[in-house]
């Protein structure tokens, strides 16, 4: 993609005439082959200065425009209106691919009219502060006519210096502070590299260029929990993304996932939505299983060591909360837009989508298919289910109903009936928010199977074949629930068939699949949605590094390497659990923690590693690939309350935790300072470093990294530490590397697996 920005200054009194001349040709420019964007911006500091912005799919499209009648028509129209000036110039830019000496940053920010004075007062202060930032060259403030949208268009000496600046958390206050509130609301950032003017000697256009309507870094197909999670994580990192969704309206009733796992709650805490989820949901406090009317076990899920308990929240609420969070990052899904097809090459993906106004094309660097059980992306990639797609022969029904009985609140209830050791009846009741409200799942009455003609329903969990009645629900309760149980207020119901399977690959080239597009689960354990969220959580930070050009060559391959074995294990476990009372009664707690993804580990990943001086070193701490546990009681100078470890490791970067106790060498401070500088350079600024000291350790004189005291000893205990050691925590909260003692060379080699050793 190529962007041009041409500046012109109107003669006194000709400002409106210039705008009229542009409006007369703007539609014609937009209709040219290869045009992606066209607009006229005003210089916010000079009412007579304008910037004509155009974007093109390739050099040929731009050359055809420059040599064609539309450009000539506009030039003729504005020639008598413009004021010749030495300041006039045209910039030609490209998408930021590879290395380039100059980086241009276009930050699009919305300024409500009621707060315009506040923005206009703060912006000059920001521009003055930026003058002292290394690598910063200059910037313009532009405004879209008759709009509350501004563009801060800045020029930097290099991408490395720009990312080094934004990688410092202090920049938000030190330089951007006066306008930071606007940058936290609704903004979009795009990056460009300088480019030479297209060579007019090249071969002429064939006239067959595709008219690309939109360009973006990542196109996400599907606005369910998986797609929304991926979009939030990309947007949090400043990566431009577009989300399209086939369904024109969001879902409105609880016919999908309900259970939100403990690990998902940790992720939501990181994304800033955990409080919204807790306010909208209810806690699932335990479960009970009955076989032939006899209670076989009861377990409390309120375990004190969990960071969050198991939450009950309908999927439509999950999607609402994620959509609202995404909106604060400046991204809104386009609903009623369906993917038709796509092609890909070495540089990106070209997707064709259907909208209410007709077909459009979208150019993206990467595409992620989060489009569910009937995934179009999966189909177009030619992915197949390993071993075939499995389907249970039974039909099931769902219902949202009030249940009157004497059962403990907050418990998930499973009633099963067995004859001669074989299950022939099943009822699962999951509490919902509301008085005595449950989502029930049970075998459908035989008449519904007859409606299908004995044929399999298409894959998916919510394929509606008919609408069971309240009498059907009551019949299931009469058969399996305690005597006297009554159902009322049936809000909705449906019939579905359970499908299960996992695709042979999680992607190909620049296209990936996640969530139900990659794996289908029986509903036992509520694994589907949570596993999809974990897919997106794993993939997004890697995609962000790839878009920025700082990812190692094999980093994106690790998405399948890490996530597919987990998906395979979860699908298998869910299938085994679907028609049994329990898998392992001897260790119900461990089974619950496993289902909640609290024991998830990427220990077999090629990205993770360690360097230990003795086999027993760090044996009581998390291993490579394990979830990095939280710890409290941390003391940081200037903070009047104890901190938690996840307050340090949270964010969008890797975090290096260097630990030392009283036995550490006196030269530790010098070594840690050098290590900090080296890893930040190697990771292109995408890493935070902290020195954690035991209560008896002497604090070295350090300006960097920050020093935090393990005052309560919780970090030492949780990570099994003595002497000097380090842990590298990935952006997804898993241990990437650890060493005892500190092994800088081994750490550098591990970072090369992620960042490719770029300096």
UniProtKB/TrEMBL annotation:
<dbReference type="Pfam" id="PF01494">
    <property type="entry name" value="FAD_binding_3"/>
</dbReference>
<keyword id="KW-0285">Flavoprotein</keyword>
<feature type="domain" description="ABM">
    <location>
        <begin position="103"/>
        <end position="192"/>
    </location>
</feature>
<dbReference type="InterPro" id="IPR007138">
    <property type="entry name" value="ABM_dom"/>
</dbReference>
<feature type="region of interest" description="Disordered">
    <location>
        <begin position="611"/>
        <end position="638"/>
    </location>
</feature>
<dbReference type="InterPro" id="IPR036188">
    <property type="entry name" value="FAD/NAD-bd_sf"/>
</dbReference>
<dbReference type="Pfam" id="PF03992">
    <property type="entry name" value="ABM"/>
</dbReference>
<dbReference type="InterPro" id="IPR002938">
    <property type="entry name" value="FAD-bd"/>
</dbReference>
<dbReference type="InterPro" id="IPR050641">
    <property type="entry name" value="RIFMO-like"/>
</dbReference>
<feature type="domain" description="ABM">
    <location>
        <begin position="2"/>
        <end position="91"/>
    </location>
</feature>
<protein>
    <recommendedName>
        <fullName>ABM domain-containing protein</fullName>
    </recommendedName>
</protein>
<keyword id="KW-0274">FAD</keyword>
<dbReference type="InterPro" id="IPR011008">
    <property type="entry name" value="Dimeric_a/b-barrel"/>
</dbReference>
